[in-house]
Amino acid sequence: MVKINLQDKFSKFSEHWTPKVIAEMNEYQFKLVKIEGEFVWHNHSDTDEVFIVVEGKMFIEFESETIELNQGEMYVVPKGVQHKPYAEQECKVMLVEPKGVVNTGEVSGDLTAQNDIWI
Amino acid sequence: MVKINLQDKFSKFSEHWTPKVIAEMNEYQFKLVKIEGEFVWHNHSDTDEVFIVVEGKMFIEFESETIELNQGEMYVVPKGVQHKPYAEQECKVMLVEPKGVVNTGEVSGDLTAQNDIWI
Q1: Using CB atoms within 10 A as the burial measure, which of B12, B107, B112, B119 is most buried?
Q2: What is the pLDDT of residue B106?
Q3: What is the pLDDT of residues A18-77, one digit of tens each?
Q4: Residue A65's pLDDT is what?
């Protein structure tokens, strides 16, 4: 094991909405993603999903409300809950979720990223 | 669910080496801890443990090396690996590990903190 520097890892990619794995803990993965613009409505039917904002500002739209997350803030999206992340400007985010989770849940489309890509 | 602001949560306690739960994701917990001085040698025989430095500098001593972690850096201590965290000055850390993990592993002592305390 070596230590992991989040900003070093963020410097290794520029594309949006493509989570990159930086660490594994048991059967869970820590992923970094840069987001900008609107994602798709989706849910993860079998797991919660954690968002931690490392830099910038993002929003998560739910059916009944929209929450704003700034640097140093986190949110646990419960399993099965429909949500749509978006960011007006580029935002750097860490995700924590079980290995194997696909970014768009059960909605395949242009924004579905290849899974389990390490940087 | 409400969003969680890490610095707000850190402002709610001052004691060292007493992890406080701030969120749950499936059967895992996110905990905040302020550390200063030396902890005890211990290991967690059935789980990996993640350290993320939110502010300050800490060290994790292993049998064969010592690693230094600064703000924005993380480390996964593999299950069963003996380690001793320490910090020369107060350091704010986020831990991620399964619910039920005791801070001192199987070594009970003065530094063993009450488990599952939420803030």
Answers
A1: B112
A2: 85
A3: 999 999 999 999 999 999 999 999 999 999 999 999 999 999 999 999 999 999 999 999
A4: 96
Nearest to B1 among A5, A76, A98 (CB): A76
Contact yes or no for A7 and B48 at CB 8 A: no
Q: How many domains does chain B have?
A: 1
Q: Chain A interface, mutation test: which of B76, B96, B99, B119, most A Cβ atoms within 10 Å?
A: B76
Q: How far is B61 from chain A (nearest CA, A)?
A: 13
CB atoms A50 and B30 under 8 Å: yes
Q: Residue A66 pairs with which residues in a beta bridge?
A: A61
b/e B61-96 (16+ beta carbons within 10 angstroms → b) = beeeeebebebbbbbbbeeebebebebeeebbbbbb
pLDDT the model gives residue B62: 97
Rounded CA separation B41/A4 (Å)? 23
Q: Is residue A19 part of a domain?
A: no
Does any domain span residue B109?
A: no
B107 within a domain of the structure (yes/no):
no
Chain segment B58-114, per-residue pLDDT in tens: 999 999 999 999 999 999 999 999 999 999 999 999 999 999 999 999 888 999 999
The CATH code of the domain that includes A99 is 2.60.120.10
Question: Can you give the residue range of the structural domain that contains B27?
Answer: 14-98
